[in-house]
Amino acid sequence: MTAVSDVSKTGEPAANGRVAGDEVLRVRDLHVTFDVRAGRLPAVAGVDLTLRRGEVLALVGESGSGKSALSMALVGLNRGPRTTITGSVEFNGMDLVRASDRELRKVRGNGIAVVFQDALAALNPLHRAGAQVAEMITTHRAVGKDAAWNRAIELFTDVGMADPHRAVRAYPHELSGGMRQRVMIALGLANNPDVLIADEPTTALDVTIQAQVLEVLKELQREHHTSIILITHDLGVVAEVADRIAVMYAGRIVEYGTRDQVLFDPQHPYTRGLLDVVPSLTGPVTGRLSAIPGSAVTGVERPPGCAFAPRCRLAGPECEQPVELRQRGGEQGHLDACTKEDHR
Amino acid sequence: MKRALLRLLAVIPVLLALSTIVFLAMRWIPGSPATSLAAGGNMNATAEEFTQSEERIRVALGLDQPLWKQYLTFLGDLVTLDFGTSFYGSNSVLKLVGEALPATIELTVAAMLIAILIGVVTGVIAAWKKDTVVDGAIRVGATVSFSLPWFALGILGVVVFGVVLGWLPIIGRLPNSLGYHPTTGFVLLDAILQNRPELVWPWVKHLILPATTLALSMAGFITRIVRTAVLEVLGDDFVRTARMKGLSESAVLRHHVLRNAALPIVTVLGLQFGALLGGSLITEMVFAYPGVGNLLVSAVHQRDYPIVQGAALAVAFLFVMVNVVVDLLYLVLDPRLRKVTA
Ligand SMILES: Nc1ncnc2c1ncn2[C@@H]1O[C@H](COP(=O)(O)OP(=O)(O)OP(=O)(O)O)[C@@H](O)[C@H]1O
Ligand SMILES: [Mg+2]
């Protein structure tokens, strides 16, 4: 890698100085709406988020809460005639929301990469595993096919492939689920991105393989100081690898804090419901997120106030007022979006 | 490979059944080859002489035998790959069909290529521009192409380009004046083998009208298939991965979408080939094109049983070969169907 690109990756204040030293990505008032038959679906409804260098931010929330819509919107992967994305995503001195497709393509797979959940579906069935990784490299680097291929072998070694030389030549269907997910991770890391978005990277795997893949992810993240946005339903995973946690509900972040703050001192009733914590719990949290009675808000109509109120045991008249995410009952830096003061 | 071989074997009973049907059908329709042969012999013969001559011919051709005996003889010949000779003249079935078959293959393949070119280009554009004016226009065009009477329009083409404008020849395959003597029977191949480049252009000119007529009858259908297949693949996860890599849209299309969409398209094209083959037999008649279709029709008129049987077998065989080719193409296109090596 050249010295020039190294400098651009240190996250030094960009020319306009919008992103501070250790902040890699800054999301401001991000909205993502999909035009559907019933109207305009607000999948992401005003999200503010900051990702620091080298941190793992876990994005948790029920199905349909907008986790994927949010993370895909960061690199415009859900851009389309039926999608409206507003707000800003500052990255390397660029606003990715306003960036042209051409500018965005330079960021995709390079500065920001994505690891998808179902590697069998996410990899092209007709191309060799190594070729799929090499393609990502040659798209952004002026290197020859052979060099890219060798780099793929290197990456396959890094992600703990049993036999990298054979694996690069294999087609996706010839690899096991765990190996395929490693290919996906190798793909994500191919260009040493600043940000890696991992959308449920281990959900499709069985428990032991899950642990191995997570280990690989963690190790590589420490080594390269990659920032990771990790979307998962698995509390065990969150407890193990997350530095910070953002809890999403109905397209908004309703709670944000460090791992310990959110896991051990959840503020928002929704988070409490998800964690299903009892006050005495002090040991490590494990298991899947709990199911909360009632169903998530996914329709086109949204109440002006707290979207969780209809399902909340504590809801009162004040919950009909608009509410923002800010410091309330929690420790310094622990934000939540619940106006009720008496539930804590 | 084994799969393809098995398929070839499975085809034998099909060919056998087809031959049997053709065998019976020819003997079932009224009129005997002996009658037309006797009538063709001597115009001034008396009725008695005529009947005697007819009877001699019947015996000579073995048509006096009971049907089951004829059938056994026919089967025996078939098994030893003896396809017989024409009732008229001394030409073997193998020679006559062998001369006509390349012409039919050329016409069918040319039509297929034109149809694929039109169908794939419009289908991909329609899928790419889904729900836009372009997509709408292509879809309307495809539907129209579907419902037009192309053979009537073929005749219109003959009148306009052949007769009025005089740009294109309207009948035949090559002018006799060129003195073409087939080596393989495929003009393009022979032009190379015999070093006669002057054969190529007249050959192309003769193909344009019939092949285009035939192709247009199918292009609209291919457009629809391609559009659907491409749209389906565009929704696949690996396309999103390709975009995530930062590839340009055209690279996504070329490297990831098209090859995956090719799988269902090839299946349908393989199936459509049968229809195209049937269409080319009819087209041959419109354009007096010397292929298997014309051979077959004149043989049916003349009750030239061996030719009819041979030509029908040849068409069926061609159909089978296309299926084998489609199978092999699959193996080339889709590694998942190959034997697991890793
Ligand atoms: N392309 C799209 N078009 C229309 N609606 C969409 C689209 N993508 C997502 N949605 C809708 O947006 C909402 C948020 O979806 P999203 O996929 O972000 O949820 P999620 O939190 O990732 O859920 P899961 O945990 O199931 O992955 C859902 O109601 C979903 O139906
Ligand atoms: Mg999701």
UniProtKB/TrEMBL annotation, chain A:
Write down the CDD domains for this protein, in alphabetical order: ABC_NikE_OppD_transporters
What Pfam family is a match for this entry?
Answer: ABC_tran
Segment forming the signal sequence = none
Keywords in alphabetical order: ATP-binding, Cell membrane, Membrane, Nucleotide-binding, Transport
What positions does the domain ABC transporter occupy? Answer: 25-275
Entry GO MF terms? ATP binding; ATP hydrolysis activity
- Entry-linked InterPro entries: AAA+_ATPase (IPR003593), ABC_Ni/Peptide_Import (IPR050388), ABC_transporter-like_ATP-bd (IPR003439), ABC_transporter-like_CS (IPR017871), Oligopep_ABC_C (IPR013563), P-loop_NTPase (IPR027417)
Chain spans, region Disordered:
325-344
A GO CC term assigned to this protein in UniProt: plasma membrane
Q: Which SUPFAM superfamilies match?
A: P-loop containing nucleoside triphosphate hydrolases (SSF52540)
Membrane topology qualifier: Peripheral membrane protein
- Tell where it localizes: Cell membrane
Q: Which GO terms describe its biological process?
A: peptide transport
Could you tell me which PANTHER family the record lists for this protein? DIPEPTIDE TRANSPORT ATP-BINDING PROTEIN DPPD (PTHR43297:SF2), OLIGOPEPTIDE TRANSPORT ATP-BINDING PROTEIN APPD (PTHR43297)
Q: Which family does it belong to?
A: Belongs to the ABC transporter superfamily.
Q: What is this protein called?
A: Peptide/nickel transport system ATP-binding protein
**Originating species:** Pseudonocardia thermophila
Taxonomic lineage per UniProt?
Bacteria, Bacillati, Actinomycetota, Actinomycetes, Pseudonocardiales
Automatic annotation (TrEMBL), chain B:
Segments forming domain ABC transmembrane type-1? 101-330
Q: Where in the cell is it found?
A: Cell membrane
Q: In which broad location class does this protein mainly occur, judging by the first location in its UniProt entry? A: membrane
Q: Among the entry's GO cellular component annotations, what is one?
A: plasma membrane
* Gene3D superfamilies from the UniProt entry: MetI-like
Coiled-coil regions, chain positions: none
Entries under CDD domains matching the protein = TM_PBP2
What keywords were assigned to this record? Answer: Cell membrane, Membrane, Transmembrane, Transmembrane helix, Transport
What is the topology of this protein in the membrane according to its UniProt annotation?
Answer: Multi-pass membrane protein
InterPro entries under this entry? Answer: BPD_transp_1_N, MetI-like, MetI-like_sf
Kindly list the biological process annotations in GO that this record carries: transmembrane transport
Task: Kindly give the Pfam families that the UniProt entry links to this protein.
Answer: BPD_transp_1, BPD_transp_1_N
Q: Which PROSITE patterns match?
A: ABC_TM1
Membrane-spanning ranges: 107-128, 148-170, 207-226, 261-287, 307-333
Similarity section = Belongs to the binding-protein-dependent transport system permease family.
The protein in question is named: Peptide/nickel transport system permease protein
Tell me what organism the protein belongs to: Pseudonocardia thermophila
